Every structure is written in C-alpha cells, then in structure tokens.
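pls design
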C-alpha cells in the first residue's frame, strides 16, 4: 500500500503538471471507485480546475477552484500515471481525467477510491487522522508526548493512522530497523533514549524515502526516473532470508497482530 513517501512524491509531481489546467474529459470504468453515479460525477467536475494538491497521511486531496475536493486513497495496489493516449498503460483503469491531450490514469483502485466532497465532508473524512510526522510543528518532545500512555507493540503503534499519519507496513519495519528496535517491543517499555532514537530514525527514513520517490512499481510519467527508487533501498522489508546489511544476522519474517513483519533478530533489540 502506498505510504507517506509515495503519496508525497505523487503530490509533488501532480502539483507540477495539473495546477489551473481545466479538466476536459472524465471516464469512469468502475463506478464503485467514485461516490456518485458516473454521469453525475462527470458533469460535476468537467471544466473544473485543480488549484492546489495536498497530501494528508496516505491520501491526496485535489482542491478544486470552486472549493470542493477530490479525495484519493490508493489503498492496496493503487497507481497513478500521467501521459497522452499514446502512452496509455497496459492496465485496467478505474477512472481517467483528461487535461487537454494529457490524461491522469487511476489504476488498481479495486479497494481504493476517488470521491468528490465538500470542504466539510473532506474535513470530516480527515478528522480522525493523527498528526503529520514531517510537519514543521512536529518535534522530539511532541513525538514523545504522542507515545505517552500508549500500549502495545511498536509496529502496531507506527501503523495506527489515528495516532500518527502516513506510515504503513514497509516504513514501520524500516524505521524500527533504523532505530535498532524490535517491531514487537512494547511501547510502554521504551526508555527516553529509545524514543529519541525512534523519532530520529522515523524522520530519517521518511525523508530519505520521499526524496528518492518511495517504492512504487512504475513511473508517474515518461521520463520519470525518481518514482520507485527506494524499492532497492529497503533494508529489511520483503528481504526475508537475506543477510542483514549491518552484518552478522539474517532477516526474518513473522506475523504480528495479523501483519507481516521483517526484522533482524541480531541487531534489533528491546531498547
């Protein structure tokens, strides 16, 4: 599932190409992906202009010129591609938005969605999400306060969108590895020093992954050499049986609260 770095990378790319360009065509191939009947959806956004692209957690919010929002959640397997008809991806698309001769293709949205909302509706949809971890107002002290009184496994906390927004399975494992903490360590048992190390690792991993485009499996557009570059940089995620890059150990995979977890038992500890 695309996480904070992937969606932030998309936000930057979308902002470079779509701002103030009118929507000239709307194709809906799967009505369950949207929240209106296909024709009503098409009529509602034809001619609209995107004036701002915002990322909130794992969501993208397209701010339209009339105040409404298009809320996108890619969920598991969702992808975006931007280009002309001649570059149409060899995949089934759920929704297509045309901007002149360029088309934004929404793919893999069998579980994802693109909903047209009012400001009030979009605020309600985002209202239960935790704070943004890379926001300039976040710091080590605020992060520690977020953890105060929390209980349970570190992995479960990191992926809890009501506590902190944007982290999923991949980056939770990468952050725990960077912090040299077991994903199963109980949050209530973490020392002050461990929490400091966890916060520093979180900022480092998310910033590095965002800078090199996250781990998406295909480029956003022709000539895009950034998107997906982090896929080869993962140190533990999906590396079961491979040697630990810090030396000595072997990456293992377990299940924790129904989620797959990758870690190195040699260099990740309780503190």
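designed seq:
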């Amino acid at each position: 599932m695309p996480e904070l770095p992937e969606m932030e990378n998309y936000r930057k790319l979308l902002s470079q190409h779509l701002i103030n360009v009118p929507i000239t065509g709307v194709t809906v191939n799967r009505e369950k992906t949207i929240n209106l009947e296909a024709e009503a959806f098409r009529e509602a956004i034809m001619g609209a202009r995107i004036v701002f692209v915002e990322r909130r957690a794992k969501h993208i919010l397209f701010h339209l010129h009339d105040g409404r929002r298009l809320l996108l959640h890619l969920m598991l397997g969702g992808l975006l591609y931007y280009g002309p008809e001649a570059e149409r991806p060899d995949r089934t698309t759920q929704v297509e938005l045309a901007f002149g001769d360029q088309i934004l293709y929404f793919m893999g949205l069998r579980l994802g969605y693109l909903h047209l909302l009012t400001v009030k509706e979009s605020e309600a949809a985002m209202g239960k999400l935790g704070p943004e971890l890379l926001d300039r107002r976040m710091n080590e002290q605020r992060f520690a306060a977020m953890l105060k009184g929390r209980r349970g496994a570190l992995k479960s906390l990191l992926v809890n969108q009501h506590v902190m927004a944007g982290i999923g399975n991949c980056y939770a494992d990468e952050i725990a590895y960077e912090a040299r903490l077991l994903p199963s360590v109980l949050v209530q048992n973490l020392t002050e020093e461990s929490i400091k190390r966890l916060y520093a690792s979180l900022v480092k991993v998310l910033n590095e992954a965002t800078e090199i485009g996250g781990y998406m499996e295909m480029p956003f557009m022709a000539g895009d050499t950034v998107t997906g570059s982090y896929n080869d940089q993962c140190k533990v995620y999906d590396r079961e049986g491979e040697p630990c890059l810090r030396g000595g150990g072997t990456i293992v995979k377990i299940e924790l609260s129904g989620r797959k977890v990758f870690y190195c038992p040699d260099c990740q500890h309780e503190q």
